[in-house]
Amino acid sequence: MKQTIISLFSTIFFLISCNNDKDQETSPQYRSLTEAVYASGNIYPKNEYKLTANADGFLVRQTAFEGDVVSKNQLIFQLESISQDARLEASSNILRQAEANYGDNSPVLAELTSQLRNARTKLSNDSINFNRYKELYDRSATTKIEYERAELAYQTSKNDVIARQKALQRTKSQLYVDLQNSQSSFRVNAREGDNFRIKTFEAGKIYEIYKKQGELVRRGEQVALIGDANEIYAQLAIDESDFVKVKIGQEVLIKIDVYKDKVFKAKVSKLYPKLNKADQTFRVDAEFETDKPNAYYGMTLEANIIISQNARVLTIPKNYLVGNDSVWIEQNGDKKKIRIIKGVENLDLVEIKGGLHEKSILVREN
């Protein structure tokens, strides 16, 4: 356990001093004893994320700044995209032309439809003429040559109508494919254009911006740090020797330097099982209860995680402890070293579960 503690927690930890300067004698006393684990850490916003660029370009426009509250999908940065803008404009023009070619007022389809209508009119006339010549030929009122000429004209018109029907359908199908391809190309270019416009994923506050207007931004580079300003948590570092004592739901008392003597209450919400080898600590997260500090990113804090609270236990000052389990007592005018059975302890007091009683006289080792 760290050998520092928040001074404000004097209501939890008792400093026992002896008044007998000669022998420094004292006796065990029943007191309220709270066992706590010390932790240091910082305050962070929930739902924290970093905006990254999806394209290379110079930052030419910035619409929000550090400290600003932003909404979901809000445009924050615009990157220069001259060539991409040109591609998007070209695909937009091609799409408009494809829509016009396939639309109700399509000049291409109107011309083919008109040609089909004329061919059907001619077929109707040639059909009437063919039937008339057939009747005349059946009555031997015309020659076979005239009859066959009328029949050939009718068959030619019939084939012409079929061919123009197929041409119209084929052209409509091709124009539809062209329209679909144009729409796909436009969507791709529009989506690529979105890569030059950096937007937020979720609402929050901008805590830090890493790039300035005019600077070159590379694809994958981080440009801003954003988090939820309304929801914050305490990220604590616990010494590995104390980590096994910490459980989810335990009360946490937090002291933040900028708030002077104010103490915030929180609850342990999450334990992280991986040891940080750099400082031999484990990470523990705590959720604030009703009263929360302002969401200033990374504010340092000190905390005590309440492990146990005992309303009335027999205690001795910790500085009378010899080694880990012995004390010196005065017995019949002599000093004697005895073993004790310890319970919980804090920086100042040790619970005595065996070996001493209220009338025992403890002395300090010379």
Automatic annotation (TrEMBL):
Superkingdom, taxonomy of origin: Bacteria
Domain YknX-like beta-barrel: 236-302
Source organism per UniProt: Emticicia soli
SUPFAM superfamilies (UniProt xref): HlyD-like secretion proteins
Name assigned to this protein: Efflux RND transporter periplasmic adaptor subunit
